[in-house]
C-alpha cells in the first residue's frame, strides 16, 4: 500500500445551502461522471486511471479548479473529440457545473470533486494534452503565497501528467499572481510561449468570459493570459 502523504487544504469546500435542484444533480449525476478511483480510501495503491477507456482513446484535457463550470462546458461542447476532466473541491461549483452539463448535453467530461493533487497521483504520466488554471484562488496575503497553485507541490506532479508539447494556460487578474506564475512555472519543465504583449493581454481565440473574469473587469482589474508549453 502506498503511504498516504499529508496534504494541507486551505480552500472552502462548501458555501451557501444548495438549491434542491443542485442537490439533485449531485445525487443523480456526479457518480456517473467520475473519472475512476481517485480518493485515497477508494484507491490506496494509487492505481492509474484508464483514460483511454474512459474517453475512447480521445485526447484528454484537464481543468484545475473549474469554478462554476462555464469554461469547461464551453470547451467540451466546442471540442467533442476531446475528453475533459475537471477537478474542483468546492461542492457548490460542482453542482453548478452539473447543471450546465445537463443543459448543454455534453458527454465528454469527467469530474473529480476534490483536491487536484489526489487526481495528479492517478493520472498516467504524459497523458494530458492541455491543462487550464483559470482565475485560481489568489491568496493575496504574503504569508499565504505558498498556498497558491503555482508552487512546486502542484507544478511538479502537473508536469509529470502532461505530454511533451502540451499546453498549460493560466489566467489571472492579480499582478502578484502573474509575477509568481512567471517565476515559478518555468522552473518545472515549462516554456512561456509569448512573443509579444498581445499574447498575454488578449484572451485565447476559444476563450469564453467567466463570471470571475467579468467581476475582475467590473472592478478595473486587468486579466492576464499566460500560455506555457511542456518541455
Automatic annotation (TrEMBL):
User: Under which pathway is this protein filed?
Assistant: tRNA modification; N(7)-methylguanine-tRNA biosynthesis
Q: What superkingdom does the record give? A: Bacteria
What biological function has been recorded for the protein in this entry? Catalyzes the formation of N(7)-methylguanine at position 46 (m7G46) in tRNA.
- The answer to keyword Membrane applying to this record is no
What name does this protein carry?
Answer: tRNA (guanine-N(7)-)-methyltransferase
Q: Which family does it belong to?
A: Belongs to the class I-like SAM-binding methyltransferase superfamily. TrmB family.
Spell out the GO cellular component terms annotated for this protein, sorted alphabetically and separated by semicolons.
tRNA methyltransferase complex
Q: Which organism is it from?
A: Jannaschia donghaensis
**Residue positions binding substrate:** 141, 173, 210-213
> In the record, what terms sit under GO molecular function?
tRNA (guanine(46)-N7)-methyltransferase activity
Quote the EC number: 2.1.1.33
Q: Which UniProt keywords apply?
A: Methyltransferase, S-adenosyl-L-methionine, Transferase, tRNA processing
Q: Which residues bind S-adenosyl-L-methionine?
A: 63, 88, 115, 137
The record's catalysed reaction(s) read: guanosine(46) in tRNA + S-adenosyl-L-methionine = N(7)-methylguanosine(46) in tRNA + S-adenosyl-L-homocysteine
Q: Which InterPro entries match?
A: SAM-dependent_MTases_sf, tRNA_(Gua-N-7)_MeTrfase_Trmb, tRNA_methyltr_TrmB_bact
Lineage here is:
Bacteria, Pseudomonadati, Pseudomonadota, Alphaproteobacteria, Rhodobacterales
Coiled-coil stretches are none
Gene3D superfamilies named in the record:
Vaccinia Virus protein VP39
Q: What's the short name of a Pfam family annotated to this entry?
A: Methyltransf_4
